[in-house]
Protein backbone atom coordinates (compact mmCIF):
# COMPACT_ATOMS: atom_id res chain seq x y z
CA UNK A 1 0.00 0.00 0.00
CA UNK A 2 1.43 3.33 -0.95
CA UNK A 3 0.58 6.47 0.90
CA UNK A 4 0.46 9.61 -1.14
CA UNK A 5 1.35 12.73 0.72
CA UNK A 6 -0.93 15.38 -0.63
CA UNK A 7 -1.41 19.01 0.29
CA UNK A 8 -2.82 22.19 -1.11
CA UNK A 9 -0.26 23.98 -3.23
CA UNK A 10 0.63 27.29 -1.54
CA UNK A 11 1.04 28.80 -5.00
CA UNK A 12 -2.27 28.01 -6.69
CA UNK A 13 -4.29 26.20 -4.01
CA UNK A 14 -4.70 22.96 -6.00
CA UNK A 15 -4.21 19.60 -4.33
CA UNK A 16 -0.87 18.14 -5.31
CA UNK A 17 1.47 15.36 -4.29
CA UNK A 18 4.00 16.71 -1.83
CA UNK A 19 7.55 17.10 -3.06
CA UNK A 20 10.74 18.76 -1.96
CA UNK A 21 9.85 22.10 -3.47
CA UNK A 22 6.52 22.08 -1.64
CA UNK A 23 4.82 23.40 -4.77
CA UNK A 24 2.83 21.66 -7.50
CA UNK A 25 4.65 21.06 -10.79
CA UNK A 26 2.76 23.86 -12.51
CA UNK A 27 3.88 26.35 -9.92
CA UNK A 28 7.45 25.02 -9.97
CA UNK A 29 7.53 25.61 -13.73
CA UNK A 30 5.94 29.01 -13.36
CA UNK A 31 8.44 29.95 -10.69
CA UNK A 32 11.36 28.80 -12.80
CA UNK A 33 10.19 30.87 -15.74
CA UNK A 34 9.70 33.87 -13.44
CA UNK A 35 13.21 33.36 -12.18
CA UNK A 36 14.54 33.28 -15.76
CA UNK A 37 12.74 36.53 -16.53
CA UNK A 38 14.29 38.19 -13.48
CA UNK A 39 17.68 36.74 -14.15
CA UNK A 40 17.66 37.92 -17.76
CA UNK A 41 16.39 41.33 -16.73
CA UNK A 42 19.23 41.67 -14.23
CA UNK A 43 21.76 40.65 -16.83
CA UNK A 44 21.12 43.93 -18.63
CA UNK A 45 20.08 45.89 -15.51
CA UNK A 46 22.51 44.81 -12.87
CA UNK A 47 21.82 47.90 -10.79
CA UNK A 48 18.04 47.51 -10.64
CA UNK A 49 16.39 47.79 -7.24
CA UNK A 50 14.03 45.09 -5.97
CA UNK A 51 10.95 47.21 -6.69
CA UNK A 52 12.19 48.14 -10.18
CA UNK A 53 12.77 44.48 -10.89
CA UNK A 54 9.34 43.57 -9.57
CA UNK A 55 7.56 46.25 -11.61
CA UNK A 56 9.42 45.50 -14.84
CA UNK A 57 9.13 41.71 -14.65
CA UNK A 58 5.73 41.40 -12.94
CA UNK A 59 7.23 39.05 -10.34
CA UNK A 60 6.15 39.81 -6.76
CA UNK A 61 8.70 41.49 -4.49
CA UNK A 62 8.00 38.77 -1.93
CA UNK A 63 9.25 36.17 -4.40
CA UNK A 64 12.32 38.22 -5.25
CA UNK A 65 13.15 38.55 -1.53
CA UNK A 66 13.14 34.77 -1.29
CA UNK A 67 15.62 34.46 -4.15
CA UNK A 68 17.91 37.09 -2.65
CA UNK A 69 17.84 35.30 0.70
CA UNK A 70 18.40 31.92 -1.00
CA UNK A 71 21.30 33.54 -2.85
CA UNK A 72 19.85 32.56 -6.19
CA UNK A 73 20.03 36.29 -6.82
CA UNK A 74 23.04 37.04 -4.63
CA UNK A 75 23.02 40.58 -3.23
CA UNK A 76 26.78 40.58 -3.77
CA UNK A 77 26.19 40.43 -7.54
CA UNK A 78 23.48 43.07 -7.68
CA UNK A 79 24.32 46.26 -5.81
CA UNK A 80 20.75 47.53 -5.35
CA UNK A 81 18.75 44.40 -4.55
CA UNK A 82 17.46 44.50 -0.99
CA UNK A 83 14.90 42.71 1.18
CA UNK A 84 13.18 43.93 4.35
CA UNK A 85 14.63 43.64 7.83
CA UNK A 86 12.69 41.10 9.93
CA UNK A 87 12.25 43.66 12.65
CA UNK A 88 11.77 47.15 11.16
CA UNK A 89 11.23 46.30 7.43
CA UNK A 90 14.06 48.60 6.43
CA UNK A 91 15.98 47.53 3.31
CA UNK A 92 18.84 45.14 4.02
CA UNK A 93 21.22 43.06 1.94
CA UNK A 94 22.49 40.48 4.39
CA UNK A 95 21.47 38.59 7.55
CA UNK A 96 17.87 38.68 8.76
CA UNK A 97 17.94 42.12 10.33
CA UNK A 98 19.51 45.52 9.71
CA UNK A 99 22.49 46.63 11.74
CA UNK A 100 20.59 48.93 14.16
CA UNK A 101 18.05 46.17 14.88
CA UNK A 102 20.76 43.58 15.37
CA UNK A 103 22.75 45.75 17.75
CA UNK A 104 19.59 46.66 19.64
CA UNK A 105 18.75 42.97 19.94
CA UNK A 106 22.28 42.09 21.05
CA UNK A 107 22.06 44.81 23.69
CA UNK A 108 18.67 43.59 24.89
CA UNK A 109 19.93 40.02 25.13
CA UNK A 110 22.98 41.21 27.05
CA UNK A 111 20.79 43.20 29.42
CA UNK A 112 18.61 40.16 29.98
CA UNK A 113 21.65 38.06 30.70
CA UNK A 114 22.97 40.68 33.08
CA UNK A 115 19.65 40.74 34.92
CA UNK A 116 19.80 36.98 35.12
CA UNK A 117 23.32 37.20 36.55
CA UNK A 118 22.19 39.79 39.08
CA UNK A 119 19.36 37.55 40.16
CA UNK A 120 21.63 34.61 40.73
CA UNK A 121 24.46 36.61 42.31
CA UNK A 122 24.63 36.98 46.07
CA UNK A 123 23.09 40.23 47.24
CA UNK A 124 24.98 43.07 45.60
CA UNK A 125 28.54 42.09 46.56
CA UNK A 126 30.94 43.46 43.99
CA UNK A 127 28.04 44.48 41.82
CA UNK A 128 28.04 47.84 40.09
CA UNK A 129 24.45 48.89 39.52
CA UNK A 130 23.35 50.53 36.30
CA UNK A 131 20.44 52.90 35.87
CA UNK A 132 17.42 50.95 34.75
CA UNK A 133 15.60 51.98 31.60
CA UNK A 134 12.26 50.89 32.98
ZN1 LIG B 1 0.45 25.20 -7.66
ZN1 LIG C 1 15.77 46.74 11.15
TrEMBL record:
Top-level taxon of origin: Bacteria
Keywords: Cell projection, Cilium, Flagellum
InterPro entries noted in UniProt: Lambda_DNA-bd_dom_sf (IPR010982)
Identification of the protein by name: Flagellar protein
Organism (species): Paenibacillus radicis (ex Xue et al. 2023)
Origin organism lineage: Bacteria, Bacillati, Bacillota, Bacilli, Bacillales
Amino acid sequence: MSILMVANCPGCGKVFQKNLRNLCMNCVKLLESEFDVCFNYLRSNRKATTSQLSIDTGVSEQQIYTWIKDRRLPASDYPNLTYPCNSCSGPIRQEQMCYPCRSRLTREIRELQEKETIRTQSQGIGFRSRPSRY
